[in-house]
C-alpha cells in the first residue's frame, strides 16, 4: 500500500496510566513545531461503542468533539496540545469495530464467508487506522493503542498494527513503546525486567518496537540504557528517558531534550519543513510557572474523588491562569457533603466558585446551596451545563418564590419545571449517543458579561445535554434580574444566563471547557478568573 502519510503507533506495557496520551500529544506537538500537519487517534479496547454511557468514575471525563462524538478524555489532551479539532474518526473502540463488522455481515457484505477475527476484525481496524490519512490533510498520523500489551482485549489491535507494517513499508511505519522502569528502594535499583517482558510480548505478537520511552522517577544511567537496548533489540539512542514532570505541559520540552522527535524523523526519513522552536509554548510555561498573584477556586461536583472526571475544566483553569499570570488553586469539593447548615464553613476562603456538570439527583441540593452562597455573597460564579440549570432552579426557588421548582430530570412531577426535557428527546429510548451533542451557534446579548468576554455576537460552543431552560419562565426570571445572555438562533434555546447586579454570575448550557487550549485560553474562563482577581482585590 503506497502512502505519503507516515503512521506512528504508540503502545504501552508493564502498567496502565503511564501517560500514552501525553506522550502522543507531546510527540505530535514537536512534529507540528517542525512544520508537519499532525493528528492523533485513540483506539480503545473496551466493548462500549463510545464512552458516552460510562460512569465518570469508570473512565474519567467523556470528551465531546465539534462533530458531536462522545470520546475518550485523551482527545482533550490532543486538542489542547495541538490547537486542532478532532472528530468522530479520532476515537474508535472495539465495540464500534465489532458493531461495524456485524452490521456488514447482516447485510450480506461478506458474501457468505465465515466472519473471523482475522481477517475481518483486523481489516476493519486497519481501515479505521487509515481513514484519517485518506483525506490527504496529514503528514503524520499518531495512533495510540489503549490498554497494555498482553491484555486479551487489545490482541486484535496489536495484530492489526503488525499487519500495517507490511502494508506501509518500514519508512512509513513506526512503533513507540511506552513502558515503566520501576525503582526498588530496598535494593536501590532501577529494574529493567518488566520492560524486557513487555517487549517480549510485543515480539511474540510480531512487532519490534522502534523506540522505547521509559517512564521513571530517577534518571536512567547509561548502563541501564545499554541493557534495555541490548535486551529489547533497539538502538541505544532510541531508549528515551521520560522522567516524572512537574506539569504535563513540560513533557514536550522534556521529549525534545531527549530528541524523541529527531529519532522519529530519522526513522521515517522526514526533513524539517519549518521550525518554530515552540516559542509560544515556552512563553505559556513561563507564565504558568511565574504567577504574580493567586486565587482560590472551588470546583463543586459529585465526582471529585476522581479529578479526571473534570479534566477539561481543570486544564481550562490552567490555561486561563497562565494567560493572566495567576496561580489558580483549585479546591475540589463534593456537593454531596454540602448542606444549608455547613455551606459557609465548606466554602470558606474561596474567591470564586464553579459548579460542575453532571447527571442525576445525587448532590443536587448541595449544588443549590452552593449557588445561593455565591449569589448572596457576591462571589464570582460559573455554572456549566447542570451547573447552569442548578443556578436557574435556585433563583426560581429563592427569588421567584417557586419553592418546588426543579428539573424534570430530578422530579418529573414538579409543579414548576424551570428545566425540562428537550422536545426532540422525549421519544428517545436508546441512551448512547442520543443527547444534544457537538457544536451549535449561540447569539450573545450586547452589554452582557458574556458578550464582553467573547467580544462578538455570534459564537459556537459544544453541548452534551438532554434538558433545557423552560422558556415559560424566562419573562419572570428576567423581571427579577436573571437574564438570557445567549440564545440559540435556530431553536431559541437559552444557552447562557447571567445575573445583572453581581460581580460575575454566569451559567452556560454548553461546555466551554471543551474548547480551551494551551495557546487559546477560553474567554469565559479568562473573564471568570479576571473577575475573581478583581473581586478579591476590591475586598482587601
Write the SSE topology.
Layout: E1 6-12, H1 20-33, E2 38-44, H2 56-59, E3 63-64, E4 70-71, H3 74-82, E5 91-93, H4 94-106, H5 117-131, E6 140-145, H6 155-168, E7 173-180, E8 183-184, E9 189-190, H7 193-204, E10 211-216, H8 222-232, E11 239-243, H9 251-257, H10 260-268, H11 279-289, E12 293-301, H12 311-323, E13 326-334, H13 343-346, E14 352-355, H14 364-377, E15 381-384, H15 386-398, E16 406-407, E17 417-421, E18 436-444, H16 449-454, E19 458-465, E20 467-469, H17 474-479, E21 482-487, E22 494-499, E23 505-508, H18 523-539
Parallel strand pairs: 1-6, 1-7, 2-5, 2-6, 7-10, 10-11, 12-13, 12-14, 14-15, 15-23, 16-17
Antiparallel strand pairs: 3-4, 8-9, 17-20, 18-19, 18-21, 21-22, 22-23
Helix pairs in contact: 1-3, 1-9, 4-5, 5-6, 11-12, 12-18, 14-15
Describe the structure.
With 540 residues, the chain is of the alpha/beta class. The strands form 5 sheets. Strands 13-12-14-15-23-22-21-18-19 form a 9-stranded mixed β-sheet, with helices on both faces. Strands 5-2-6-1-7-10-11 form a 7-stranded parallel β-sheet, sandwiched between helices. A 3-stranded mixed β-sheet has the order 16-17-20, with helices on one face. Strand 14 (352-355), helix 14 and strand 15 form a beta-alpha-beta unit. Helix 1 (20-33) packs across helix 9 (251-257), helix 4 (94-106) crosses helix 5 and helix 5 (117-131) packs across helix 6 (155-168). The longest helix is centred in the last third of the chain and has 17 residues, at 523-539. The chain is globular, with a radius of gyration of 25 Å. The model has no long low-confidence stretch (mean pLDDT 92).
Amino acid at each position: 500500500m503506497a502512502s505519503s502519510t507516515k503512521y506512528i503507533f504508540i503502545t504501552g506495557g508493564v502498567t496502565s496510566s503511564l501517560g500514552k496520551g501525553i506522550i502522543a500529544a507531546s510527540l505530535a506537538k514537536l512534529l507540528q513545531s517542525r512544520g508537519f500537519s499532525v493528528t492523533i487517534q485513540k483506539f480503545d479496547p473496551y466493548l462500549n461503542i463510545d464512552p458516552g454511557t460510562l460512569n465518570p468514575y469508570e473512565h474519567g471525563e467523556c470528551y465531546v468533539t465539534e462533530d458531536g462524538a462522545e470520546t475518550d478524555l485523551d482527545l482533550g489532551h490532543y486538542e489542547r496540545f495541538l490547537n486542532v479539532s478532532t472528530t468522530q474518526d479520532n476515537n474508535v473502540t472495539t465495540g464500534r469495530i465489532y458493531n461495524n463488522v456485524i452490521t456488514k455481515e447482516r447485510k450480506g457484505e461478506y458474501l457468505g464467508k465465515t466472519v473471523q477475527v482475522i481477517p475481518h476484525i483486523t481489516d476493519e481496524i486497519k481501515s479505521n487506522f487509515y481513514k484519517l490519512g485518506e483525506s490527504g490533510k496529514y503528514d503524520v498520523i499518531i495512533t495510540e493503542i489503549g490498554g497494555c500489551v498482553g491484555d486479551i482485549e487489545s490482541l486484535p489491535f496489536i495484530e492489526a498494527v503488525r499487519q500495517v507494517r507490511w502494508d506501509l513499508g518500514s519508512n512509513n511505519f513506526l512503533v513507540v513503546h511506552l513502558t515503566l522502569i520501576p525503582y526498588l528502594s530496598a535494593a536501590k535499583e532501577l529494574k529493567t525486567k518488566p520492560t524486557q517482558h513487555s517487549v517480549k510480548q510485543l515480539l511474540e505478537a510480531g512487532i519490534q518496537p522502534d523506540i522505547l520511552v521509559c517512564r521513571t522517577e530517577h534518571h536512567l544511567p547509561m548502563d541501564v540504557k545499554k541493557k534495555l537496548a541490548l535486551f529489547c533489540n533497539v538502538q541505544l539512542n532510541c531508549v528515551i528517558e521520560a522522567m516524572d514532570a512537574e506539569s504535563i505541559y513540560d513533557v514536550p520540552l522534556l521529549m525534545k531534550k531527549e530528541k524523541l522527535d529527531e529519532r522519529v524523523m530519522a526513522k521515517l526519513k522526514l526533513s524539517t519543513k519549518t521550525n518554530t522552536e515552540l516559542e509560544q509554548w515556552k512563553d505559556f510555561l513561563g507564565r504558568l510557572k511565574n504567577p504574580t498573584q493567586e486565587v482560590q477556586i472551588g470546583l463543586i461536583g459529585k465526582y471529585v474523588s476522581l479529578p479526571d472526571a473534570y479534566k477539561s475544566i481543570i486544564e481550562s483553569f490552567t490555561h486561563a491562569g497562565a494567560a493572566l499570570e495567576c496561580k489558580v488553586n483549585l479546591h475540589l469539593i463534593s456537593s454531596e457533603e454540602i448542606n444549608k447548615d455547613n455551606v459557609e464553613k465548606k466554602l470558606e476562603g474561596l474567591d470564586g466558585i464553579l459548579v460542575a456538570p453532571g447527571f442525576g439527583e445525587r448532590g443536587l441540593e448541595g449544588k443549590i446551596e452552593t449557588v445561593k452562597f455565591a449569589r448572596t455573597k457576591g462571589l464570582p460564579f460559573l455554572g456549566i451545563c447542570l451547573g447552569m440549570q442548578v443556578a436557574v432552579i435556585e433563583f426560581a426557588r429563592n427569588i421567584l418564590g417557586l419553592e418546588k421548582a426543579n428539573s424534570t430530570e430530578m422530579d418529573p412531577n414538579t409543579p414548576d419545571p424551570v428545566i425540562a426535557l428537550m422536545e426532540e428527546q422525549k421519544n428517545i429510548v436508546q441512551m448512547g449517543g442520543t443527547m444534544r451533542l457537538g457544536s451549535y451557534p449561540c447569539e450573545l446579548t450586547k452589554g452582557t458579561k458574556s458578550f464582553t468576554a467573547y467580544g462578538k455576537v455570534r459564537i459556537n460552543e459544544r453541548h452534551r445535554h438532554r434538558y433545557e431552560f423552560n422558556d415559560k419562565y424566562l419573562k419572570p426570571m428576567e423581571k427579577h434580574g436573571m437574564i438570557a445572555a445567549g440564545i440559540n438562533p435556530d431553536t431559541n434555546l437559552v444557552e447562557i444566563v447571567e445575573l445583572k447586579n453581581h460581580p460575575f454570575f454566569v451559567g452556560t448550557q454548553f461546555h466551554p471547557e471543551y474548547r480551551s487550549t494551551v495557546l487559546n485560553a477560553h474567554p469565559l474562563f479568562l473573564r471568570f478568573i479576571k473577575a475573581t482577581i478583581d473581586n478579591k482585590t476590591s475586598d482587601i
